[in-house]
Amino acid sequence: MALLLAFGETQAQQFIDKAVVEYEVKTNVKKTMGNNSWDEQLKDAMSQFKTGYYTYTFADNKSVYKFDHWATGMKIPEWFRRNDEENVWFFDHNTGKYNMQKQIYGTSFNLEDSIRKIEWKLSNESRVIAGFNCRKATGKIMDSIYVFAFYTDEITISGGPVSISGLPGLVLGLTIPRLYSSYIATKVMVNNVPVASIKPVAAKKYMTNKSLFALLQERSKDWGSSDDEDGKQWLRQFIWNAML
Length: 244
Known about the structure:
Layout lengths: L1 H11 L5 E11 H4 L4 H8 L4 E11 L2 E9 L7 H9 L1 E5 L4 E8 L2 E8 L4 E11 L2 E10 L3 E8 L17 E7 L4 E9 L19 H12 L8 H15 L1
Antiparallel strand pairs: 1-2, 1-11, 2-3, 3-4, 4-5, 5-6, 7-8, 8-9, 9-10, 10-11
Helix pairs in contact: 5-6
């Protein structure tokens, strides 16, 4: 018995530096929509949540995060799901650079820039996710968006889903209230990691964070009325999602 306990303790102290993590990503799409008659009719024919599964593959302090499949039985229009299926995030923590492909209403944008710095505050709150002990951290992105993360230092890469990074371990749980979205790791697979798939998206031309933000603001400046608070909130969410 003592030998078994010692073996278990040794296993628990091992750190993972290569794996594939599956995340369940859930967005309350009805909350992201407006209250006009068209949106209300559309809501009646839709599921409340858009639920997809993504994979985060990492090794050698590099990672790629992308869409894998949708949950079954979900009633969400195809045009509401299409953008998610094409998005890819690549991070190289050795160089401090990241590369992102974002599909935004039928147009593909490729971005390459330094990894964003996120302001994090750690707390003593903890929980177990996918079998790993995780600690809570609160961060702020894009100046005003608060995110709530649970990370584990048993997985050594300083990353997470979408463009979230900067904690002393991998984020396995994430909530972004202002985008009505949550990300939760469902399993961590350490065998047969497809290392060759961890690579940036190739493009002829790349934008930076700053240039993409400026372009999105320019293209959306005439959308809706400046007096429509519902429309302004939707526009803010559109830009936040595009930059995430």
